[in-house]
């Protein structure tokens, strides 16, 4: 069942989401050739505690760490380890925080040093597809409208849309109803209503959509070994329109990137 959130509950989810946003911003500068993902994990764990929250993933379904770190051909759910990142890698970092009983959960795929232009393009398209999906999170639309928008945009570039892993409702639980797939049919699925909070998270493969799970029981990688990207935001439906509870602003500040991609979905200054 979909849990509709009160304005107060949405503010608490925003608080947790913002802690994740700041954590990803803090990591942006640390993600360099030579750094290990276990070092990034420790930095994130300490940072989240320092902000009065608990890591949202640590211990959830018995996951062993604070971050899911998934380089290159890994799609999601990679476990931090002591092998150093290399120039030209990409690294998806997914992070959760729990505060006041509510979760934040989002992800960004970072470039490590100078990245191949074809892989940069994969990152650009995956991130653009996230905002295309967010724009469909409107009253009267249905899950399928959002899913279809992400899928059709992504597939127009010949990329593979992962089927087995999906976005989700977010609140007192990390994964609530409804599921938000990155593929689907217009007009199908649950109707969006005010007070819904969801995590939208396209996972896009440069090659085919097919994935495999590693023997560690967690890591998901592409079946063909080609790179995969993952971007995620937390979004509330307020006054019929999508409003971001998370932000990549802290990442962009750290990396000196200028972007206005979030502007259409920022908290309205007009009270209604
Ligand atoms: Mg996530
Ligand atoms: Mg998620």
Characterization of the model:
This protein has 272 residues and is α+β, with helices and mostly antiparallel strands. It has a single domain, classed as Creatine Amidinohydrolase, CATH 3.90.230.10. It is built from five helices and 15 strands. It has helices at 7-30, 37-50, 117-135, 143-155, 249-255; strands at residues 54-55, 67-71, 74-76, 90-99, 102-111, 160-161, 167-169, 176-180, 197-200, 203-205, 211-213, 220-222, 228-230, 233-238, 241-244. Strands 8-7-9-14-15 form a five-stranded antiparallel β-sheet. Strands 1, 2, 4 and 5 form a four-stranded antiparallel β-sheet that branches. Strand 7 (167-169) and strand 8 form a beta hairpin. Helix 1 packs parallel to helix 5. Bound molecules: magnesium ion (2 copies).
User: Which outline best applies?
Assistant: globular
Unreliable sequence segments = none
Q: Say what the CATH topology is.
A: Creatine Amidinohydrolase
- Quickly count the helices: 5
Q: Percentage of helical residues?
A: 25-40%
Rg, rounded, reads: 17 Å
User: How many structural units, i.e. domains?
Assistant: 1
Q: Separation of termini? A: 28 Å
One letter per element, helices H and strands E, the order comes to HHEEEEEHHEEEEEEEEEEH
Strand content bin: 15-25%
CATH homolog superfamily: Creatinase/methionine aminopeptidase superfamily
Count of extended strands: 15
Named CATH architecture: Alpha-Beta Complex
Question: What is the average of the pLDDT values?
Answer: 97
Q: Mind summarizing the main beta sheet? A: 5 strands, antiparallel
> Order of strands across the widest beta sheet?
8-7-9-14-15
Bound molecules: magnesium ion
